[in-house]
Amino acid sequence: MEDVLDIYAKEADPKRPVVCFDESPTQLIGEVRKPIPAAPGQPERYDCEYRRNGTGNLFGSFEILRIKGWVLTLKGDLEGAERKFLTSLDRARHQQAKSWELRTSISLARLWQSQGKGKRNDAYNLLAPVYGGSPKASTPGICRRRSLCSLD
Questions:
Q1: Closest of 94, 100, 135 to residue 7, by C-alpha
Q2: Is residue 149 within 8 Å of 127, Cβ to Cβ?
Q3: What is the pLDDT of residues 56-72, one digit of tens each?
Q4: Residue 103 above 80 pLDDT?
Q5: Is-contact 136 142, C-beta < 8 A?
Q6: Residues 142-146: contacts with CB within 8 Å, 24+ apart?
Q7: Among 37, 88, 91, 106, which is 20 to 30 Å from 47 by CA?
Q8: Alpha-carbon gap, residue 133 to 121, rounded angstroms
Q9: What is the spatial distance between Cα 58 and Cα 61, in angstroms, rounded to a whole number?
Q10: Where are the extended beta strands (E) located within 1-152?
């Protein structure tokens, strides 16, 4: 995992872009009985019986959005890039894809840092909780991320 994180923390190289695409198999299930709606002080109730509707794949569209944001950054469209990064981040979080969340967070933090002091606090607040949970806090990748989190 740390080797992958080190790749994510490398500076972007326009001649050698890193393009990653991920998928996750999932079961498609449906309810057999209609859930009982929530009542005041009671949660919604579901029956444990379900209908299997096959399987599907969740594709990592967040990486495609992150790369689109990176391309927009190179073209000077910083607002468009920020929108792509934020959408990518939202999708990665929705799918609980922590490594992809970190990768997009690093891209967004770099963008915000390049915009000056006003956005540096935002970059710090975005990255600090994402990389803070790493068990190997002294690896080169983590150290590079720490430099992105610097408020200096």
A1: 100
A2: yes
A3: 766 677 888 999 999 99
A4: yes
A5: yes
A6: 142/5, 144/9, 144/10, 145/9, 145/102, 145/106
A7: 91
A8: 19
A9: 9
A10: 23-31, 50-59
